[in-house]
Amino acid sequence: MTLLQAVSDTAGIKEYFLQYGILGLLAFILGYFAWMQYQRLIKKNDTLEMKVDRLQEEMMNMLVEERERMSELIRANTEALKDLQKTIFKYLVKNSD
Asked: What is the mean pLDDT of residues 9-21?
């Protein structure tokens, strides 16, 4: 007897489920519980992936801002070192006599 034949009439459905009895019912309940847990985990995974994507985007924005700030600091530091070097050379040239 195939599943479609058993489900074709109401008496067939009743006999089909009675054939498996409590074990069939427990298997159905466990299957349902497993499916619900699987759906819950998928939803949680999707939520966490969205959170990770948002945090990665925020981190990249922070890195770009810090890189620009560091570039400005390095540029200013380089200019200060050039000025210091010129001052030292001028001092050495004046005092070398």
From this structure: 65
- Per residue in 22-62, pLDDT (tens digit) is 787 777 788 889 999 999 999 999 999 999 999 999 999 99
Alpha helices in 1-97 (DSSP H): 3-7, 10-95
Q: What DSSP state is assigned to residue 94? A: H
Q: Is the dihedral of CA 71, 74, 80, 81 positive or negative?
A: negative
Q: How far is CA 87 from CA 36, 74, 78, 91, in A?
A: 75, 20, 14, 6
Distance CA 69, CA 73 (A): 6
pLDDT at position 16, please? 67
- The gap from C-alpha 71 to its chain's centroid, in whole angstroms, comes to 30
CA–CA distance, 31 with 36 (Å, rounded to integer): 9
Residue type for 48, please?
A: L
Which pLDDT value is given to residue 6? 46
